[in-house]
Design brief:
The complex is a heterodimer of chains A (334) and B (627).
Chain A: H1 2-32, H2 37-46, H3 53-67, H4 73-84, H5 100-135, H6 140-152, H7 157-171, H8 191-227, H9 231-238, H10 243-268, H11 270-280, H12 286-295, H13 299-327
Chain B: H1 2-22, E1 32-36, H2 62-66, E2 71-73, E3 83-85, E4 93-94, E5 100-104, H3 119-131, H4 138-144, E6 145-152, E7 155-160, E8 172-173, H5 183-186, E9 205-210, E10 216-221, E11 240-244, H6 249-257, E12 263-264, H7 269-278, E13 282-283, E14 293-303, H8 313-321, H9 325-333, H10 350-355, H11 359-364, E15 367-368, E16 373-374, E17 377-378, H12 381-393, H13 401-408, E18 412-413, H14 417-426, E19 430-432, E20 435-437, E21 445-450, H15 456-471, E22 475-480, H16 485-491, E23 496-503, H17 512-515, H18 541-551, H19 559-574, E24 577-585, E25 588-590, E26 594-595, E27 623-624
Parallel strand pairs in B: 1-11, 2-8, 21-22, 21-23
Antiparallel strand pairs in B: 2-3, 4-5, 5-7, 6-7, 9-10, 10-11, 12-25, 13-25, 14-23, 14-24, 15-16, 17-18, 19-20, 26-27
Helix pairs in contact in B: 3-4, 6-7, 8-14, 9-15, 12-13, 18-19
Classes of the chains: A mainly alpha (334), B alpha+beta (627).
Chain lengths: 334, 627
């Protein structure tokens, strides 16, 4: 047990180090980009109306003071680190003075709701079918499924998404192609709102699942195909153990270990996946928030979203690291 | 049995499909005008304090339907003339030396919560901006206003710190202007932190509902719409107006094909061609080519005049003569552009004030290349572009010469590589083989900065500019600045950039809207940020004189037009920027549910581009089709 606790402590230290390096890198990268947030705001405000050059100069100075971007880079870095300890990312520069945390809170449920559900569904369906295909290798239906999975798997996500958009948004317009819910339907636990959210999530979900299933299917089929040739499976079959017991308890259980690792990594990385899916379907989650923040040079918001992402990925890896020895006794504690 | 169930499920799905796609709500479709908000999804949807800097959305309907100020200048012809006294009952009254401006307010106007709009609101708005740093209009108010007073309930007097014959421009809507604040709502609140939710409206609509995630905002016609300034022109047609983020251009086109989006703010030329082909109810500003509305904004090749490469006028002219505008128009707008050789956009009333009267001068304009004298202007370039497109576009191209002039513009510079060569040689450049070298012996290279995917037509046009310079022997390349575009443009971090430094009122001939900022007093040294809009960082004592004379001339004085022409002549002679074409916005309007949209051929009563504050004029002209 002591050895295990030492192992956890080491992994915890590694976790904090990774988070610190990741967040620091993000800070310096965002602050070294050639985009000046004050200049973006000033340009946006003066893009159309009548504003004299003297007034613009004055406006620029006022905004620098208001946004607190006057100190040098190191001063801003240490202020940022002290704030982040209490998960305070400061005010958003492009939605000033609203705190970044409020914007993230608003977007996070959409990303988690869509991406978490889809990742879990892809994993479950892909592994289930892959396991069956690996075990019942002569089944025609499962062979066809394997071919379909192999066909979908290499197609880039956005191609599938655009095909779905054209199919169900234009040729047979039965599903909404943009947004998280319908217009003029107030947010709340009402039947109209919930069905609207569900109908808006069908196409983005379908596009994620169609592409996602393939990888899990192929991986699981390969793992199971190997395991079924192991001696202990053969002995079980010869010993008269029922197939309905062999498949879940002798085969799938052993094949699942690497797939669980993959799942944890996928869950941690759902924020990365959010960027494309949310852009394509104008889905109101963290990915859209991040893209908007990058374009408006709102580095408070960029840092907020990326910090959440870094923490999530690192936490997933940390959890896998500390749980793995409990699942798999072959893992050496070093 | 299974087949029957499957069939029933499919039938149910088909029957329910429109509801699935559109959802259900308490806002009837046939009473709602659905409009694209080009701001996209609003991060901070519950924020309606438009006076705080970029804190929330602006063209969500907020500025078009609920805000008001003293005057509007229409970018086209206006409901009742270009100038509209909105909250003011008459134009501004200046004293002789432009140090005082009096505004007479229109009585009988009310906020949506029943409180009357009076001079108290104006005084409060001005004082709030004088006392608060960082509001959108704090700086111009603090720079200009010495004091403000209200001799009576409907009169406001501004005393200015220095003479300013254009002070009223601060309160004159061209896209936006300084909007009035409701004193009774904002009093006692921090104007930088108060969200103004729900907004109290001075316009004809009030907030009906909005998406907390910022994708849509719906406004409902006020029951007392008669007590707003727009009521002078009649009752607004739509009971509801929804502004939404329909997604990227392809989705906007799909939404309009499905009649779920009445007004597309802007899409690609290809999107327009699809709509014209597939949707008989969709139309643009022009009935045929070029469809889009020419914004009072001029797309240009902007030289960084502080860069030694471009400080010789001969070089700038040589680069202009190396261009073939027809190819640029085809590359950028697929032909759907309105060209301009002069530094004023060919839109609104400008062709009547500037382009047509100057045709003769331009046609006779002579350029001495050192070896010969040429007349570089081709007055029929617009018609030549129309002829070039006619074989492929057929009856989409007008045949009436006046219509062609309005749609495609008048003339432009003839591509003349021989003259361009002579000009470069006179400037000390040499050609070795097919490559140009600068007087210092280095290869003549030019980077053309373009915005990238956010503005595809300008990017494609810029790529063609670089391509033509390359063919002429210059090492020209394009550089896509993407999100850093504005920072680079403002900071002078470019050699040439495809953007605009000329923007006008559109409907009114006064050019001070952009020209005042071209005075050398505002020029930043190289490496420092330039204030809008002299992105070309050009200065000239003759230009300063013109600007100073405009400053001393009243806004409506016809002398202003003559001074405008002087500027145009100077800009032609000096070529500090190469004007290309107006920035055409491909606004597409679906007539399935609504008719009465503004259009170029019969009723150009306003700019259809729906994020403009001026687009409120559409509301009183739109009528339901009865569908």
């Amino acid at each position: 047990m002591r050895r295990y606790l030492l192992y956890v402590a080491k992994r915890l230290a590694q976790f904090f180090l990774v988070v610190f390096i990741g967040i620091s890198l993000t800070f310096f990268i965002t602050h070294l980009t050639p985009i000046d947030p004050v200049e973006q705001m000033v340009s946006s405000m003066t893009a159309f109306g009548n504003t004299s050059p003297e007034a613009v100069k004055m406006m620029r100075e006022a905004l620098q003071e208001l946004y607190g971007v006057q100190g040098n880079l190191l001063e801003q870095y240490f202020t940022y680190l002290s704030r982040i300890l209490v998960l305070d990312f400061g005010p958003s520069l492009s939605a000033f003075p609203t705190p970044v945390s409020v914007l993230i809170e608003r977007a996070l449920p959409w990303t988690i709701g869509l991406l978490f559900t889809c990742t879990m569904l892809s994993w479950l369906i892909g592994n289930m079918l892959g396991g069956l295909a690996g075990y019942f290798r002569n089944s025609r239906i499962l062979k066809v499924l394997g071919a379909v999975a192999m066909g979908f798997h290499p197609i880039p996500y956005y191609i599938i998404a655009f095909v779905l958009l054209i199919l169900f948004g234009y040729l047979w317009p039965i599903l909404p192609i943009t947004g998280g819910s319908g217009q003029n339907i107030p947010q709340g636990f009402t039947f109209e709102y919930i069905t609207s959210v569900l109908s808006h999530s069908i196409l983005p979900a379908l596009s994620i699942i169609l592409v996602g299933i393939g990888g899990w299917f192929l991986g699981m089929r390969a793992l199971v195909s190997n395991i079924v040739t192991e001696d202990y499976v053969l002995y079980a079959e010869l010993g008269g153990v029922k197939r309905s017991r062999i498949l879940p308890f002798y085969v799938i259980r052993n094949a699942l270990v690497p797939q669980i690792t993959g799942l944890a990594m996928s869950l941690g990385a759902i924020f990365n996946g959010a960027i494309i899916v949310e852009q394509v379907f104008s889905y109101p989650g963290l990915g859209r928030l991040l893209i908007g923040a990058v374009y408006s040079a709102d580095y408070s918001l960029v840092l907020g979203v990326t910090a959440i992402s870094i923490i999530a990925v690192s936490a997933s890896v940390f959890l896998i690291d500390i749980l793995y020895p409990l699942f798999d006794p072959r893992v050496q504690l070093t | 049995m299974i087949n029957r169930r499957l069939l029933a499920l499919l039938v149910g799905l088909v029957l329910a499909s429109p509801a699935l796609a559109q959802g259900t709500s308490d806002v009837p479709r046939n009473e709602t005008l659905i409009v694209e908000n080009p701001e996209g999804t609003i991060k901070n949807a519950g924020w309606f304090n438009i006076w705080a800097t970029n804190a929330g959305g602006r063209s969500t309907g907020l500025q078009q339907l609920t805000m008001d100020t003293f005057w509007y200048i229409d970018p086209d012809h206006g409901l009742d003339g270009v100038w509209d006294n909105s909250l003011a009952s008459e134009p501004p009254i200046y004293n002789a030396d432009f140090t005082e401006m009096t505004v007479k307010l229109r009585p009988g106007l009310y906020w949506s919560d029943g409180v009357e709009f009076t001079a108290d609101d104006v005084i409060f708005t001005i004082n709030t901006h004088m006392n608060t740093k960082g509001l959108v209009w704090s700086a111009p108010v603090q720079l200009n206003v010495d004091s403000v007073s209200a001799p009576d309930k409907y009169t406001v007097v501004f005393k200015l710190k220095k003479p300013n014959s254009r002070f009223h421009a601060l309160f004159t809507v061209r896209w936006n202007a300084m909007w009035m604040m409701p004193k009774h709502v904002f009093e006692g609140k921090d104007p930088l932190k108060y969200d103004f939710n729900p907004p109290v409206s001075l316009g004809s609509y009030v907030l009906h509902g909005y998406d907390p995630n910022g994708q849509w905002f719906t406004w409902e016609k006020r029951e007392d719409w008669q007590r707003t300034s727009l009521a002078r022109f009649g009752e607004p047609g739509p009971k509801y107006v929804t502004y939404l983020d329909p997604g990227p251009p392809d989705k906007r086109v799909i939404a309009q094909l499905n009649h779920e989006l009445d007004i597309i703010h802007d899409t690609s030329p290809e999107g327009v061609f699809t709509l014209v082909k597939e949707s008989p109810t969709s139309r643009g500003w022009f009935p045929g080519f070029p469809y889009g509305h020419p914004d009072p904004t001029l797309a240009q090749v902007i030289f960084n005049n502080q860069n030694p490469k471009f400080q010789d006028r001969d070089v700038r002219w040589a680069l202009a003569l190396a261009l073939d505008i027809k190819q640029i128009v085809m590359a950028g707008y697929r032909g759907a552009a309105t060209i301009s050789a002069i530094a004023v956009p060919p839109t609104g009333t400008h062709p009547e004030f500037y382009h047509k009267p100057m045709q003769e001068w331009l046609t006779n304009f002579e350029l001495d290349t050192g070896k010969k004298v040429i007349k570089p202007y081709d007055p029929n370039m617009g018609r030549e572009i129309a002829d070039m497109l006619r074989p492929s576009m057929g009856d989409q191209i007008p045949t009436d010469p006046d219509q062609i002039d309005n749609a495609f513009g008048l003339g432009w510079w003839k591509q003349d590589l021989e003259a361009a060569t002579q000009l470069l040689e006179r400037a000390g450049f040499t050609k070795r083989g097919s490559d140009w070298y600068m007087p210092n012996g280095e290869r003549f290279s030019i980077k053309v900065v373009v915005e990238g995917e956010a503005r595809p037509v300008m990017t494609r046009g810029g790529s063609m500019v670089a391509e033509q310079w390359r063919r002429f022997g210059i090492d020209a390349t394009t550089e896509s600045a993407q999100a850093s575009f504005l920072t680079r443009r403002n900071g002078g971090d470019f050699e040439t950039i495809i953007s605009w430094s000329v923007e006008t009122w559109g409907g009114h001939p006064d050019l001070s809207f952009f020209l005042d900022s071209w005075h050398s007093q505002f020029l930043s040294p190289p490496g420092e940020v330039q204030t809008p809009r002299n992105w070309s960082r050009y200065s000239n004592p003759d230009l300063d004189k013109i600007i100073e004379e405009i400053r001393g001339t009243a806004f409506d004085d016809p002398k202003g037009i003559e001074l405008g022409k002087e500027f145009i002549k100077l800009a032609v002679e000096e070529m500090p920027v190469i004007p290309l074409m107006s920035y055409n916005v491909f606004t597409m309007m679906d007539q399935t549910y609504w008719t009465g949209y503004p259009n170029a051929e019969k009723d150009p009563y306003t700019d259809p581009v729906p994020n403009w504050g001026n687009s409120r004029a559409m509301m009183v002209r739109l009528k339901p089709t009865g569908k």
